[in-house]
Amino acid sequence: MSPVETKRKKILFISSSGGHWIEILRLRAAFVDCDAHYISTDKSYNESLSSGQFYSVRDASRWDKIGLVLQALRIFYLLIIIRPDVVISTGAAVGFFGLLFAKKMRIKTIWVDSLANVEKMSLSGLKVRPYADLWLTQWQHLATEKGPYFHGAVL
Amino acid sequence: MIFVTVGSQLPFKRLIEAMDLWAGDHKDQPIFAQIGDSDYLPKNMTFCQSMTPIEYDKRLKEATLVISHVGTGVIINALEQNKPLLLMPRLLDKKEIRNNHQLTSVDYFSTFSNITIAPNEKTLDTLLTQMLDDNRLENKPVKPTISDELITVIQKFVAA
To answer: Which of chain A's residues have a Cβ under 8 Å away from the Cβ of B79?
Structure first.
């Protein structure tokens, strides 16, 4: 690589499995020429990605405190290893931890709350507010002047 | 091939039971069902509990119709491949999900031309039979697009 060439941005996509994951894959459209890294809770996603680096973390429900701590520690460790320029998430707990640690590490953070949350922001989406530099909902009626902001949806 | 899927998170017995009953009356229709961690095992359809993303993609490609819950994952995946969807919302009352977002997003998703919503098992049966009779399953060009504004906002933020 020649030194004149601008450095490709390192983007970390982090979300839980299922719909959150499918939605975050759609958001790749916003990052054309980048170095993509992914964190999710389903190991099998690794084989479905044609490019980029995938890391799995354990799944943990809101009530599984020990699981959540272990999950958070692994995410913290992965953030140190990956050192992304931007962290983006659609949910849920994994995304919250991803943005929380990223913000402390002065990494840019983006939260796009899942389309599934029609009536109100998700719990993690509300809690992540102080750590999200760009705090978005995919529903116009949930947007307010002070955020979350609405700029359209992934479909 | 009709592809029935309940998603990766929770079983959806009401959907699988209804589809199994329907399959019993329509033995000529090839159906494959992914049923999740369910204690109800279908008698009239071939099925599996879970599948890898690659297996899932293969089933989706083969499908002429996808029957599922109102989940954003299956909706995005199926619409990306122009597959028509027949969807029944999971209900909080029946403990099929942890909140009622599937029910409340029905109005939004029913505006998509490739999506038909069945509010309950009875309408599922009727709508499905109707869809097959009317030959309503020809692909319609409705590839979903991500909002340009959303892309621009994110790109500007990342570049700043």
So the answer is: 155
